[in-house]
Amino acid sequence: MTYITSWEEFSKAAERLYLADPMKVRLVIKYRHCDGKLVIKVTDDHVCLQFLTEHTQDVKKVEKLSNQLMRHMASREK
Question: What is the pTM assigned to this prediction?
């Protein structure tokens, strides 16, 4: 599994993956304090998107992405 280096590319791809099949997509956020690294993974078991960062300012970007995905989940018609 490779990491996407551009945040904009990662966030757009993650949103497209979610909109394609919302019931199968998972978002995993993992922080390792000893390394100071944050890994964000979005997968639907066929496609796996990953982003790795060591910068603290990227936490706001992760929060914005998760809020955006939550808005999609909340506005989804049943």
Answer: 0.86
